[in-house]
Amino acid sequence: MPAPAVVHRLGILPWRELVWLEGLTVTSATRTLVDLSATEDAPTLRATVDEALRRRWTTLDRLQVALSRAAHRPGVAALRAIVTQLVGGDAPAESELEARVAELLETAGFPRPVKQQVVRVGGVVRRMDFRLPGTPVVIEADGYAYHSGFDTFERQRDRHRALASRGFLVVPWTWASVRDQPEHLIRQLHATLAQTRRAHPTAEAALESRPSRAR
Fold first, then answer.
1. How large is the greatest C-alpha to C-alpha distance in the chain, in angstroms?
2. What SS3 state is found at 51?
3. What Å distances lie between residue 27 and 71, 103, 104, 118, 127, CA to CA?
């Protein structure tokens, strides 16, 4: 027996907020995000926005327009805060795991990390998930479940080694550790940063002096 459905009556929706999908008229991804902002918690909403942007189901411009039309709808303040942050230059996370890492760092009071910074190592462009500003520490949102197969998983390891050869300190955070041991990760990160400052007080200056080039 199919699960019961919950019916929401929204009145007449403008055509721009509707799409045709497999014979059904449904709300667009942009409008759906506005509706979800009233019911989902902040980390889930951020992960959903990131995924919609990554899959090109919506754009920041469309979200801003939708927010201007829904100024008094419940929950839109949370969505507006996310869009404002992204428009300010914070690149969208590429997975729910990355969204959770960003949320954990923000909750713990760390400065906003630089996301998806690129460097060249041996002529190859490497991207860093989360670079902690003022340090050589790079947090990589890592886990086999977020890769398409073993070969991709191995390429991730090669990327870690390449970044280490450039002087970056790669700290992998897995889905299980972010979900089950967030306090432990934060304690470890504080210890790593303290040790890095003692051992390499000028590491940041040395890293920044090396040329890098974005794609």
1. 65
2. helix
3. 18, 28, 31, 36, 35
Q: Where are the alpha helices (DSSP H) in the chain?
A: 29-36, 42-54, 60-69, 76-87, 96-107, 150-165, 175-180, 182-199, 203-209
pLDDT tens-digit map of 148-203:
344 455 666 777 788 888 888 999 898 888 888 999 999 999 999 998 887 665 54
Dihedral over alpha carbons 64, 69, 71, 75 (to 10 degrees): -70
Please tell me the pTM assigned to this model: 0.52
Residue pLDDT, tens place only, 113-147: 988 888 887 777 778 889 999 899 999 887 544 44
Instruction: Give the model confidence (pLDDT) of 1-55 as tens digits.
Output: 566 766 666 666 676 777 787 787 788 899 999 989 988 988 899 889 988 888 8
Strands 124-131 and 114-121: antiparallel
Going by C-beta distance under 8 Å and a sequence separation of 6 or more, which residues neighbour residue 175? 97, 100, 143, 145, 146
* Pairing between β-strand 124-131 and β-strand 169-174 as defined by DSSP bridges: unpaired
d(C-alpha 68, C-alpha 61), whole Å: 11
What does the alpha-carbon distance between residue 87 and residue 85 come to, in Å, rounded to a whole number? 6
Distances (CA, A) of 176 to 102, 141, 144, 173: 15, 11, 11, 8
